[in-house]
From TrEMBL, chain A:
GO molecular function (one): ATP hydrolysis activity
Keyword presence, Coiled coil: no
Family affiliation: Belongs to the ABC transporter superfamily.
Protein name, entry field: Manganese/zinc/iron transport system ATP-binding protein
Domain of life: Bacteria
Domain ABC transporter: 8-240
Membrane-spanning segments: none
Alphabetical keyword list: ATP-binding, Nucleotide-binding, Transport
A Pfam family hit: ABC_tran
TrEMBL record, chain B:
Top-level taxon of the source organism: Bacteria
Gene Ontology terms describing biological process: response to zinc ion; transmembrane transport
Originating species: Melghirimyces profundicolus
Subcellular localization, as worded in the UniProt entry: Cell membrane
Principal location: membrane
Name of this chain's protein: Manganese/zinc/iron transport system permease protein
Listed transmembrane segments: 6-27, 32-51, 57-75, 87-107, 142-161, 173-197, 203-222, 229-249, 255-280
Taxonomic lineage of the native organism: Bacteria, Bacillati, Bacillota, Bacilli, Bacillales
Amino acid sequence: MKRIHSPVSIRDLSVAYHRKPVLRDIQFDAPEGKLIGIVGPNGAGKSTLIKAMMNLLPLTSGDVKIYGKPYKEQRDLVGYVPQRESVDWDFPTSALDVVLMGRYGKLGWFRRPKAADREFAMDCLDKVGMADFAKRQISQLSGGQQQRVFLARSLAQDARIYFMDEPFVGVDAATEKAIIRLLNELKAQEKTVLVVHHDLQTVREYFDWLLMLNMRQIAFGPTSWVFTADHLQKTYGGRLTVLPELPDPVAVTR
Amino acid sequence: MSMGLTIMVTGALVAASCGFLGCFLILRRMAMLGDAISHAVLPGIVIAFLISGSRDSLPMLLGAAAFGLLCTFFIQSLRSQGVQSDAAISVTFTALFAIGVILVSLYTRQVDLDLDCVLYGEIAYVPWDTLSLFGHNIGPKAIWGVGTAFLLSLLIVGLFFKEFKIVSFDPQMAAALGIPVLLIHYLLMGLVSVTTVASFESVGAILVVAMLTVPSATAYLLTDRLETMLAISVGAGILSSLFGYWLALVFDASIAGSMTVAAGTFFLLAFLFSPLHGVVTRWLIRRRLRTATAVDHR
């Protein structure tokens, strides 16, 4: 009998920095072809979870499987959008060059990007509305444009699962729309996308599923089931104000 | 080869190889690493001297290179444990240099090992320090040493160019793609160690530290492409050494000092007049815009 593996399957995951636990008892199976939001307060371990899933930091315990196998064997299936501030945008390189870096994993050692890779990267830039900026040095782009370049780079990885770390932070309305359009295109292609998200107002609109996180896993499931006042209270504690005049409680973070 | 030409070729080779690797150091904000390595190698030189009992270059070069690598290993270990980058660099190299000073003071009473002559070479003596192979004089040792280091750097960076690039720009993404970030880091550090050691033995530490940082800082101001930056940095380094040699002849001054001054002059020119980032260029653009707006408002 053939077993169907979940795109991302996590068992008993714990991560600690210098003996201080940052994440504990994370356990879920992400469903395929869904947009999955990861929400929680600052310091809840959202970015740590993303990095742990990609082997970028050591696990204290537990196990992560990508389509049933360890990440190391499945790198080609995973696209990554790190936080925008994690790199130096004054680096002497162009938007197209950054997107081409998404192809490096598929190229392997000693091989340079070819014309076909360039065309592919151009298509990816086009998909995020940045084709006109291909030759632009990356420090000359606005924050939203830089974010779109990072998204294009993850598209260039041509993956089946995408991990995105706060793609909506500090972007303009046009970029936010472009990202949402892109997420829905990915969903239409049956790709699975996990997105670290901050704005609770838009959670219901953007994500099918939700992981609520505050060092422990508070809830995981379809947004309509798990995005409740009770879970929000457990995730955010006292830092949360619930606006009760709306029919459904809508939450605002401070 | 004439004496002048030998000195110029040596200076140009040092400048080219240091300028080339210096770009990656500047981009990774590790510009002072050359300074650190050139000091941290002292215990390696003394230990090599004590073991081999001779002042032959090869054992000393190997000892120095080993401690250069050790220095970068300590720095990396401290950084990965959360120590600030600049603090990690200065703690490591001062400690290693101090160990070297103690070793020299302990053992050189019996033997003749002069700090100045071991650590801080003088480029003017390069033409007399030649290498012989099977009894034939094959030319100045410095040219062979630095030339080999430069070719090695070109070869390795050329082979792993895309890896060097992505590890310098976005090490996390590189790790996610399965590129061995630490290996590439140590490859670069190894090249910097070998180049530094091969260079300063013949031309002096100041010139090495200057050529590792100044031409690449100049190139950084003049271009927005990594490949162009590498080329400009090598070119600026070579020009500095030629122009510097000429300065030294005219003023009858220290050759290494004049080459460093020349490199500094090129940097200052780029800093003021670079078409992309120059201070004066930006001021002119602002003034033109202001005049244009003033005219509009009239």
